[in-house]
Write a structure and sequence with these properties.
It contains 1 helix and 8 strands; from the N terminus they run αββββββββ. The chain is mainly beta and 135 residues long. The strands form 2 sheets. It has a 5-stranded mixed β-barrel. β5 and β6 form a beta hairpin. The structure holds zinc ion. Residues 22, 24-25, 27, 36, 38-39, 41, 43 line the site of zinc ion.
């Protein structure tokens, strides 16, 4: 099965959270935008994030857009990555009422939508609670 080249970047992100790092000021950037948001200089060096972070803020969606009804209600969170950037992502493997600010989370790859034009299956990163095991 051929994968259209325009999906290449998305395919990469299926497994790793890849952004960029600014070689001028050291800021890490996600999503990749090729320009540093801090110093406005070109920043095109790939940087792989750990995928770990914590919930910075969140809101639960009870009336989702078409195509996402099955998963409602679900929680969208603003996650602060360990490396600094804030990214918006859906939380998974957690009940809405268990989500709290500061909760440690980690990235997982999940199927986002089973149907769509041409039957394409979309994947996206989500975040789930990070298990804290004693010992
Ligand atoms: Zn910079």
């Amino acid at each position: 099965m051929n994968v259209p080249s325009r999906n290449w970047r998305l395919q990469q992100q299926r497994y790793r959270l890849v952004g960029e790092v600014c070689n001028h000021c050291g800021v890490t950037i996600f999503p990749p935008r090729d320009v540093c948001p801090e110093c406005a200089l070109p920043a095109q060096t790939p940087f792989t994030f750990s995928g770990r972070g914590e919930v910075y803020s969140y809101s639960t969606i009870y009336h989702p857009p078409a195509g996402f009804e099955e998963s409602a209600p679900y929680t969208m969170a603003l996650v602060r990555l360990e490396e600094g950037p804030l990214i918006t992502a859906q939380l998974t493997d957690v009940a809405a009422e268990q989500v709290e600010i500061g909760m440690p989370v980690e990235m997982v790859t999940r199927r986002l939508q089973a149907e769509g034009e041409e039957g394409v299956i979309s994947y996206s990163y989500k975040f789930r609670p990070r298990l804290r095991r004693a010992g």
